[in-house]
């Protein structure tokens, strides 16, 4: 459920001819329905993809905020964006933007409806997504200057507080009766272990630092690599070891059916909408 809004924005950008992998352009400046729509897309994109300020050590800005409080903030933003969307006269949009309008409305409606169920915590972690896979994302990080790599080091140093907050959110989910089927969690312990390396240079988190760009002076490269190794040893390894010890495997259920969810009837209604190929006609 928590991925729905990002998907909605990506679909809307794609349908309007904008590449979804990059922030949309704000070229349209006239106060027209089309301009209002694209300005709303800009706003929603920036809410979901804000770059952390240079030098920040706040795990919420570097990794994301897994807390219930943040989920409530997301819900409030979804409601605000939906209200703004409904003020845009869809009849005055061209066919492509009308489709974008409908896709965005559909996904915002879905996100708001799904937020009513604590079972949303079901999507926090499985063997296909979760913080245990962060090392995979790190492998592809590349920058032309030292600032980007310094941010990565700050991120490594902040992984402990982030995983602690994530664990707290998982514990809150368990207290609500929300657990995962064992079948979708069986690989998670090994995925967590893959982030722990006695030799920091063999850690997946060190991959971006192995071949730094020539645009960074050699002495600065050595400093970045030294700080990355230190962060992996002091912060990353202990954090993932602790996360492994608090794995949800002990609270997994052996049955997968929806009736195991505490809000079963509502979940059935919501999940039926996820597997529809198109939004319902309006």
Describe the structure.
Helix content is 55%, strand content 0%. With 282 residues, the protein is mainly alpha-helical. α1 runs antiparallel to α5. The longest helix is centred in the C-terminal third of the chain and has 28 residues, at 218-245. The chain is flat.
What portion of residues is helical?
Answer: 40-55%
Number of individual domains: 2
What's the total helix number?
12
Model regions low in confidence, pLDDT < 50 over at least 5 residues: 1-28, 263-277
Q: Note the run of SSEs as H and E.
A: HHHHHHHHHHHH
Largest beta-sheet characterization: none
**N-to-C span:** 23 Å
Notable traits:
single chain, 282 residues, 2 domains, flat, disordered N terminus
Report a brief summary of the structure.
This protein is an all-alpha fold and 282 residues long. It has helices spanning 4-15, 33-48, 59-62, 68-86, 95-114, 134-139, 146-157, 159-175, 188-193, 207-210, 218-245, 264-274.
Write the layout of secondary structure elements.
Elements: H1 4-15, H2 33-48, H3 59-62, H4 68-86, H5 95-114, H6 134-139, H7 146-157, H8 159-175, H9 188-193, H10 207-210, H11 218-245, H12 264-274
Helix pairs in contact: 1-2, 1-5, 4-5, 7-11, 8-11
